[in-house]
């Protein structure tokens, strides 16, 4: 044999010796078995969860009160409150110049005193004339005139008293008082300015009460009832609790949505005209829940991996409500079925697993079988 052929013969021999270790009898390659993944598992549980309606809408004042000028042409000489200040019902907010009103009141009171004096004189004259009736000293015509004069004087007293009452009202109107307790949200009053009657001076939120005006669809509106609770999330992350006070009797002609008026507890973060999202609790219903970590999303679809012995089986699921780290599975998993929690995102259908621990799920709200 030629010396140059020896290396080729040795290479061929080595190839024949090694090939059984990396191939089967037909010469095909064999893939090494995939290592088992260590995971944690949990059992799907049935719990009682609230049924909610998601909504959005504006925070608004429950009711506003407009405090207007009741005097005409009088200058404002004192302003006692400012925007944001809390006031009580009947509290003085501002005061107009009252010198003219006081002078008119004094004049009306003087006229009343004069009318009373005239009435007293007329009554005495009538009584004297009536006492002389039948004596022939006075005629019936004179007696009738005295009685008429007394009645006229009584009417004049009533007119003078009405003038005093009107002057008192005019004087009272120079003092601007709050019609209800609440918070001042607008002030148009300017010191020294003369205002006409009915000009708005202040605006306040009655009793400092706010409401959330949630907008819901026509299908959702019949499910909402007075007294149901709601949770509102403000733009800064703060949360408010509320209760349904009333629902709109009609839908908006432009948006086709209905308003739900929900009284909220004002914590200082909520402001009128603020936009907020929230949920209205309309009842409760059973839900099959699993830890949210156990749901894997691939190609826009949700899956869980059910434990079957040492391997897993991928199951398509439909998710629903979420709460406290748990997610509702509307379909795809039965109550009590064990599924992979930690490590679910790295699994494929049929993979081998090693269970390191079983994750417990809080049974708060669980349905008793």
Task: Give a nutshell description of this structure.
The chain has 369 residues and is α+β, with helices and mostly antiparallel strands.
CATH class of the largest domain, named Mainly Alpha
Strand content: 35-45%
Oligomer type: single chain
- Summed over residues and divided by their number, the pLDDT gives a mean of 86
As a whole number of angstroms, the C-alpha radius of gyration is 45 Å
Shape: rod-shaped
CATH architecture of the largest domain: Orthogonal Bundle
How many DSSP helices? 3
Distance linking N and C termini: 88 Å
Portion of residues within helices: 10-25%
- How many domain units? 3
Kindly identify the CATH topology of the largest domain. Helix Hairpins
CATH superfamily of the largest domain: Helix hairpin bin
The assigned structural class equals alpha+beta
How many β strands by DSSP? Answer: 21
Please summarize the sheet with the most strands: 6 strands, antiparallel, barrel
- Lateral strand order in the biggest sheet: 2-11-14-13-12-15
Helix/strand order = HEEEEEEHHEEEEEEEEEEEEEEE
Overview of this protein structure:
- It is a single chain.
- The protein has three helices and 21 strands.
- The chain is rod-shaped.
- With about 375 residues, the chain is α+β, with helices and mostly antiparallel strands.
- It folds into three domains: about 35-50 and about 285-360, conserved putative lor/sdh protein from methanococcus maripaludis s2 fold, CATH 2.40.420.20; about 55-65 and about 210-285, Beta Barrel (Elongation Factor Tu (Ef-tu), domain 3), CATH 2.40.30; about 70-205, Helix Hairpins (Orthogonal Bundle).
- It has helices spanning about 5-20, 100-130, 140-170; strands spanning about 35-45, 45-60, 65-70, 75-80, 85, 90-95, 175, 180-185, 195, 200-205, 210-215, 230-235, 240-245, 260-265, 275-290, 295-300, 300-310, 310-325, 325-330, 340, 355-360.
- β12 and β13 (about 240-245) form a beta hairpin.
- Strands 2-11-14-13-12-15 form a six-stranded antiparallel β-barrel. A four-stranded antiparallel beta sheet has the order 3-10-8-5, with no helix packed on it. A four-stranded antiparallel beta sheet has the order 7-6-4-9, with no helix packed on it.
- Residues about 1-30 and about 365-369 have low confidence and may be disordered.
